[in-house]
């Protein structure tokens, strides 16, 4: 569920800190205007209801809450590529994913490895072995099997400013139903887009983009979106990415 939360000025840090402390909210963006928080809520339906319909509206610093359910994910941050590598470099960095047969259900070792890697994905196999009490050779074999079976996934969190992408923006689009799927697929393939989802509500498609500057954002809106049958668009500039997977909350 995508939440758009309007907050009284002066109370933004307090609300974002409270939301960032929740394990069911992996993404939080603060608008450049300083009056809106965008958050992604991932939880069971009952937990959705408590936060959206009880806890947030009862907070005096919050003036409005918009909640839209994600119907379909066309692309997320794990799909984004800078395309700076050659094909040879990409092959060398791609782990061996040759099928090795179906994996059994997660073992206690698998759960321990996942918990440790969730806290620090750069921890060495030797450290994992020491903390789980298993031989290093066993840990290495199990990690390789989990990676091949895609039971364990890794993701590099990128600071776009280091890649000369100084504009971070969330776009909320209205697209006629007959063109929604084609628009979602086209945006998912665009190099500037690091997330596209279909939503409930008037804005039925949302795209997150990284671009070099405001002129590039203008070009994206007027040229790249033009063929996609978009009938309305709302652009929200991100002033601060408060919380994203792999990033430190600050």
Automatic annotation (TrEMBL):
Give one Pfam family, short name only.
AsnC_trans_reg
Q: Which UniProt keywords apply?
A: DNA-binding, Transcription, Transcription regulation
Recorded superkingdom: Bacteria
**Start and end residues of each Transcription regulator AsnC/Lrp ligand binding domain:** 174-238
Q: Where is the signal peptide?
A: none
Q: Where is this region: Disordered?
A: 89-109
Q: Which InterPro entries match?
A: AsnC-type_HTH_dom, Dimeric_a/b-barrel, Tscrpt_reg_AsnC-like, Tscrpt_reg_AsnC/Lrp_C, WH-like_DNA-bd_sf, WH_DNA-bd_sf
Q: Which residues form the HTH asnC-type domain?
A: 109-146
The protein depicted here goes by the name AsnC family transcriptional regulator
State the organism's lineage.
Answer: Bacteria, Bacillati, Actinomycetota, Actinomycetes, Kitasatosporales
